[in-house]
## 1
Amino acid sequence: MIRNLPLIVLGAVALAACNTQPENIVAGETPDPMATELANAAPIELPPAIAATKTYRCKDNSLVHIDWLAENKGANLRVGEDAALTQLRPAAPAAEGGNEVAPAAEGFTADGGYALKGDAEAATVTLTLPGKGAQSCKA
């Protein structure tokens, strides 16, 4: 007990040195320099969620992985296991001034000659790849 006495005294001195008065922090009214820009900014639209992910076997015996995006806003396509992702968008443009998306019957396309017809619920889709003709692919 006597060995711990210096530690207890040191702790008591440290606590006695603390300020027991409450601190009041007063923030100034600093205006936000971007307040008007943020107030007038257009609303942010999040990217579409993935509604379904399916793997298809095509007529040429290749595997195709498709991530169908929600609200028919597109699809993400991977041909083969380690292939790069290709983003397909609705083939028909949305109506002017509206947020409407083209129906899936119009299909999805991407630069380079990619085309996809079908939807997440269909058991068979039609896929056109660059340098190849249209082919049927089954889930």
## 2
Amino acid sequence: MTSTTVTPKPAIHLSPITARSRSVAYKGPVYQKTAAGEVVAYVATSPAESTTAPVTSATGGSAVGTAASAGATPSVLAPANGAPTPQPELLVPGSIARYVNGYAAAPMNAPPSVQQVIWTANEIIGLPYIFGGGHGSFISPGYDCSGTVSFALHGGSLLSTPMDSSELESWGSHGAGRWIAVFGNAGHAYMDVAGLRLDTSAADDPSNQQGPRWRPLRVGNAGYTVRHPLGL
């Protein structure tokens, strides 16, 4: 009787959606994709993100709509014209996105659409929280929670029109995906992408800064419906 050798199937990559540590420190190599499609070493030209900003509401808003109007010192990341601004398309080895000077570097192993979600989100990092921002149009001087998620997903060609947090509860497929997990309820929405969290809320983020930013993963995501784009 001959024996049959069964080749094990490769493990399916699953990005983490929770974390025990709130540290997003990264000291590894960072690269940049050029307009010609070449991948070259990245040299940082922007200072690190400011660590002082007022704490506003639990979902990233303030009593007057934007952190800036409440007298906050603008982040050094905030675009001067108050609108989405293209940023370098950063890359790092492996399958986990990394935090680099306030922005996210996309993992080289991620699908192109996931990389584009990350690079698109980088365009609005540092803009103020504006209630309803990003809903009437993807282009806005500021964004709320679901406007931020919608803007990033649209950049990856995964969403055609902006959605509010309740609509995101029934968007896409059930549960967390391999690369993307969108969390939504009636009052808030945020998204984990390849191991980093895109959120207007500073919950579980020691920076306490509000508005669209990349943050550590939360220690738990209770109270939210979890969805993901089909295939991702």
## 3
Amino acid sequence: MRIAIIRSKLQEARRQLNDAIVDLVAKRVKRNIRELEGVLKKIIFCEEQKGVAVTLKVAEGIIEKAVQNPSKHVNEGVILKTVADFYNVSLEAMMGPNRRKEIVEPRQVAMYLLREISDLSYPYIGEKLGRDHTTAIHAHGKINEEINKNPSLNQKILTIRDMIFKS
């Protein structure tokens, strides 16, 4: 089943991976579909950045890094503070009514990461950031879509994730 999901996600992204890598991902990534998508995005990003096909060894490293993180134990305060620090905005501005571009992107990234890392509910995420649950759903969907189109945003999110798990 996981192999079918991986192939479907690769087809959506218009990408191909070696069958050995697809099998490896399917065998090693078992928690949920979101984790599968995350690993695939990291592998694809690595491929795009280096301009060469990812080897089995590189894929193992990416999977190992992704699977070892105990995501559920990350405090949402750490996620919010890390995003605010990364974008050099205050937590108050990120949680406030401001709709300026320099605040909207960090807020949407924070909502995305709160959902991806801590698997919090949309109503909780919306409440935490002073928004409605539909705004949290929109932000997650928008960032999820943009990651595939915008390598710069993808790199920012990977950097923020690394900062979160190092703290």
